[in-house]
């Protein structure tokens, strides 16, 4: 048997040659001999065939032409090899092998002549021709012959001479034009044909052979073929039976190995099932290969097995068979341009089904995102599958929400599933899913039905508010948020401008968060007036006060109409801020405020109001009689800066030693202390009197020092200014021809400059001829300059 890229040629024991295509269909048949065909050879073009048979016949003929050569030998011819380029007229050569190796070559007269290339070392067992090199094997070893130089360039001896060469024949194959692979017994040698350097030639061939790799295998070699930088090896296997301990023939193996310098690495190994392998010997198996198609043909007496390099489709088949779906999907994605029999989607769907069958529902649902992509129909189909097995919840987080969008029924079906068993999950989906994915009114009704059974469920109420919001039913949403006291209520009002909806819900908002509510109401006075807010809070004065207080802080005049009301509110709910309010407000009625403060006995506020109304003496009296605070009384007298108040203060304090001490310590800078000291009764014991008198004296000395200092500063400043004025007045004044006499209105300077003249110039820049100016009395004369 021999192989070409386009077909394979198979010889039979009955002298027939069949041409088969790669599918095994017979395309041509030739009757060559009545006996067994020993060898078939084809040239590279596939147009010429050489055949040798057991009866010694050798034929070389054209498959598509009438060209033909016949020769009969007196012994069986085992081997034939046609020149690879036999189609060329210059390459009409072939070799045959029996007892000797003969080279046949057509001469110029179309005659064929033969030359013995080798003999005397037993039968020729194998021949392979590549380019200008012929390699053959006999009983002793392997030889290579160079057609160009007509020289044999090497002899590679056989390693294991104990093996019968007829039972364990040599396997030869050319990897390329200069690399020969030899397999014999259990030994493999890789030989490289190299050019010899000119200086080394002498009488030697121009080429030599170097063994670049040599190693042993575990089994006997029946055939070899190259596969890129690896080798395909057909091995004959013998094993020992465990029961009988006898050796028997096992199935042949097809191995892929990686040659190394002195060993090899097994890449893959497959045992082949062929008919009758138990009776076969090593010589019964052959390995042929087609370089163009990367096809390998294993020939046994009863079968021809075709092997080809696994592609990604084969790899995916194997992964699917082993239920390694994830790896199969990854392999398909990586090689999607190269796979032909598989589709990524089909593998993905099979993977999802496998996960579902195994019970990995969450993983299966997650994989749907990647596998189903934007195919809405497949998404809907898978959702229904998950519904059938009761796992809608598993797929819900992964459903598409934008591109694509599934039918509303799909989303509603999942929402109903959660609503029946998981309120929190239902609420999560409502928050995450856009409202246009489903029929909002249907879901709203479903939630309301559930609230009939559990009306206080906060999760359902909050979710219903969100549904109302999406449905633009903001009034209902707001009411629910206020009931739940939800933090988003203010954001909802601002976002959707719901101020018209909250006019009757101001109390609820204030109860929920008075600070945020007041800020919102004050920021939107144009939408909800101050009057409306105050009216709504009429029944809740404490809230009314919070609102009006913040309004007053922002603007003292906006709520002036409510200042009278605020007096009572401050008095009731916020007394610490009453006095600041009374001080800052210019609109509150003082009589009303005084009445309220007197009713509630608010002394400080009453004192302030009395003083503001001009009744300072009553205010001072109240400080002294109600508060008994001399410091405050003194401070008040200082603020009013009224001599009569100081007199009243002294009269009230004259019989109260502690008050006298306070006055002595503070009165010195406002009232003459002698007035107070003269009124102190003799014999009255006054606490810290000595210290107080010392302080008065110190204050007095300080005043004297201050006055003297001020006097010195004043005198120095006066003198400095006087000097400055004198310097200014002593400066010259420019007089030119443009100036005129203010009396006669003629030019101030005479036309004849040589003539003497007199001019009077005042500091006000008025100028006169001296003769034009009437002489005033000395008492009335201004200062002037004469030029």
UniProtKB/TrEMBL annotation:
Localization: Cytoplasm, Cytosol; Early endosome membrane; Endosome membrane; Late endosome membrane
Domain of life where this protein originates: Eukaryota
Membrane topology: Peripheral membrane protein
UniProt keyword terms in alphabetical order: Autophagy, Cytoplasm, Cytoplasmic vesicle, Endosome, Golgi apparatus, Lysosome, Membrane, Metal-binding, Protein transport, Transport, Zinc, Zinc-finger
Domain Vps41 C-terminal RING finger span(s) in chain numbering: 739-779
Entries under Pfam families matching the protein: Beta-prop_Vps41, TPR_Vps41, zf-RING_Vps41
Domain Vps41 beta-propeller, chain residue ranges per copy: 1-309
UniProt GO BP: cellular response to starvation; endosomal vesicle fusion; macroautophagy; protein targeting to vacuole
Molecular function per GO: zinc ion binding
Segments annotated as CHCR repeats: 518-662
CDD domains linked to this entry: RING-H2_Vps41
Cited SMART domains: CLH
A GO cellular component annotation in the UniProt record: cytosol
Family affiliation: Belongs to the VPS41 family.
Role according to the record: Plays a role in vesicle-mediated protein trafficking to lysosomal compartments including the endocytic membrane transport pathways.
UniProt name for this protein: Vacuolar protein sorting-associated protein 41 homolog
